[in-house]
Design a protein that fits this description.
There is one protein chain. The protein is α/β, with parallel strands linked by helices and 300 residues long. The protein has two domains: 5-155 and 183-210, Rossmann fold; 160-181 and 214-270 and 284-293. It is built from eleven helices and 13 strands. The chain has helices at residues 14-25, 37-44, 59-65, 87-105, 125-139, 160-169, 187-199, 218-228, 240-250, 260-265, 285-293, and strands at residues 5-9, 29-34, 49-53, 71-74, 110-113, 144-149, 152-153, 172-175, 181-182, 185-186, 207-210, 216-217, 234-237. The strands form four sheets. The chain has a seven-stranded parallel beta sheet, with helices on both faces. The protein has a two-stranded parallel ribbon with strand order 7-10. Strands 8-13 form a two-stranded parallel sheet. Helix 6 (160-169) packs across helix 8. The longest helix is centred in the N-terminal third of the chain and has 19 residues, at 87-105. It is globular, with a radius of gyration of 19 Å. Bound molecules: NADP nicotinamide-adenine-dinucleotide phosphate (NAP). Residues 10, 12-16, 34-36, 39-40, 56, 75-78, 85, 90, 113, 115, 149, 151-152 line the site of NADP nicotinamide-adenine-dinucleotide phosphate (NAP).
């Protein structure tokens, strides 16, 4: 089936903006519901995207959003529970509602964003809720494809940029989970994988891990991000007991740099041994990230 129109939930986010751009470039009509029309306008202009203020947790609104679209892409996700948003509501219950609305409206393609290491036995509530959503999607009987990226980097990321910013103010950086491993993947490659998946019927029923070409320890990523901005902080790995306690304090701050649930996620290496799907050769972080990290104002 040729996909001509897509509703992208979470289309105003970091991944969503890149994906919307690629979909528009392919001549696909893109509909993006949002909780904030102002934010959507700011981040999606001048793309020819249909932006609609909507509550995607409302079944009736969701069904209206899915009317006359060929496919739905669900990118909605949170890294921290806050302001009444829970992992259960955002990952699991929303996935349930998306499946039901897709059935009711006859949408016959669903692409679902999960996360690497999502598993019912995963070490964190984030990973377990992502796994529960995956299971709902897989059991739905809909023609669905699931994507599971490692940490994603790109000009507006909240990961490398955060460390680059921190390094400016902290010549000594006490670091939790300094030896945790990651395989960062470029946001453009993630968006490309979704576009390929949309157009490739053989991806139906598949679950793809999305990782970049190289594995790094967290301390290496922090040193790299800092060095791109000309900083060379002393990175001091924190023992786990102190790191966990520190996360407990940090999660009470208005800006959450780290929570105990994040700490738990990092107890498992965020890496995969498989090739990137669809014949895409994922970009090297060293070829992309210095271009944006070297700008002092860059960041999500
Ligand atoms: N970034 C990474 O490194 C990474 C790694 C692995 C997996 N993922 C997954 O990839 C997906 C996209 O990540 P991202 O970095 O693009 O996230 P993001 O920038 O935070 O964007 C997520 C979007 O989802 C919408 N949203 C968030 N919470 C919502 C809620 N409670 N109800 C309704 N809409 C909500 C927001 O749209 P509005 O504000 O316009 O409503 C937001 O723009 C997520 O599912 C995330 O778990 C990300």
């Amino acid at each position: 089936m040729v996909i001509r129109s897509v509703c992208v939930l979470g289309g105003t986010g970091f991944v969503g903006r890149h994906l919307a751009c690629l979909l528009c470039a392919q001549g696909i009509k893109v509909r993006v519901p949002t909780r904030s029309a102002d934010k959507a306008k700011q981040v999606l202009t001048p793309l020819p995207v249909e932006m609609l203020s909507a509550d995607v947790h409302d079944a009736a609104q969701l069904a209206r959003l899915f009317t006359e679209v060929d496919a739905v892409i669900n990118l909605v996700g949170i890294l921290h529970e806050q302001g009444g948003q829970t992992f259960r509501q955002t990952h699991v219950e929303l996935a349930e509602k998306v499946i039901e609305a897709a059935r009711v409206t006859g949408v016959n393609r669903l692409l679902h964003m999960s996360a690497l290491n999502a598993s019912p036995d995963g070490p964190s509530n984030y990973l377990r809720s992502k796994a529960e959503a995956e299971m709902l999607v897989q059991a739905s009987g809909l023609p669905a494809t699931i994507f599971r990226p490692s940490v994603i980097f790109g000009a507006e990321d909240n990961f490398l940029n955060m460390f680059a910013r921190l390094a400016k103010w902290a010549p000594v950086l006490p670091l939790a989970c300094a030896d945790a491993k990651f395989q960062p993947v470029w946001v453009e490659d993630v968006a490309q994988a979704f576009v390929h998946g949309l157009n490739d019927a053989s991806s139906i029923g598949q679950r793809y891990d999305l990782c970049g070409p190289q594995v790094y320890r967290l301390r290496e990523l922090v040193a790299f991000a800092a060095a791109c901005r000309g900083h060379h902080p002393l990175i001091v790995p924190l023992p786990n007991a102190i790191a966990y306690a520190q996360a407990g304090v940090m999660e009470r701050l208005p800006v959450k740099l780290m929570t105990r649930d994040n700490f738990n996620s990092m107890q498992q290496d965020n890496v995969c041994g498989c090739a990137f799907p669809f014949g895409i050769e994922p970009a090297r972080m060293e070829d992309i990230a210095p271009k944006y990290l070297s700008h002092p104002e860059s960041g999500g």
